[in-house]
Amino acid sequence: MTFRPLLLALPLMLTGCSTMANMHAPSWSSFNPLNWFGSSLEVTEQGVGKLNAATPLTESAVNDGLDGDYSLRNGMSMSDGKMRAFYEAMDGKTVKLVVSGEPKGKVQTIEVRDAEIASEWGVKIGTPFSSLYSKAFDACQKGKGDDARNVECYAPNSQHVTYIFSGVWDGPDELMPADENLKTWKVSKIVWHATPRLP
Question: In which residue ranges of the chain is pLDDT below 70?
């Protein structure tokens, strides 16, 4: 009599197994605890994926830090009068991330354009300004360089992560849009900085 519950449960267990096998035929890697929450990258205070301030700015190190999910192309540019080396992480012909720093140095900046990558606070490309801030004062500033028409804001409670907001602005380039305008602006990039924010 003590075996009856087990005998009743056995067909259910076997049925469950066969149903699972017919659903998606998961690979063995799906049983790895590191993969339970997906392999997508995340922007944190420490960096993006396995990329951080200690990562050498080399193709192999950048590729490893991004788990080999993208094809890479490298280049050089000038920023504030300084030479910068960068790697663009590509998905087909689309740039998804830009990893940059001093030539032969460490990773200093990671610019995320991939809508699948969120910050540790759940912010993604397309998140509206109004869901994070009530006003720009003390959190935001005009963007620089290629982002001169945009606005850059520090992520709340963060020293290393900023959000680039883009939207419609008909005013002068040198002026910040009014808070009322910014309400409808959306995150177009998430940027991680190795150097922390000044107090």
Answer: 1-39, 199
The backbone torsions φ and ψ at residue 194, rounded to the nearest 5 degrees and listed phi first, read -65, -35
| Entry pTM | 0.79
CA distance 49 to 39: 9
Residues 143 and 94 sit within 8 Å (Cβ to Cβ): no
Are the C-beta atoms of 81 and 68 separated by less than 8 Å?
no
Q: How far apart are CA 39 and CA 170, in angstroms?
A: 41
What are the distances in angstroms from CA 19 to CA 8, 39, 149? 18, 25, 54
Cα–Cα separations (whole angstroms), residue 125 to 3, 52, 57, 67, 114: 56, 21, 25, 21, 7
Residue 65's nearest CA partner among 46, 83, 80 is: 46
For residue 6, give both structure tokens.
């087990």
Q: Which of 109, 105, 119 is nearest to 88 (CA)?
A: 109
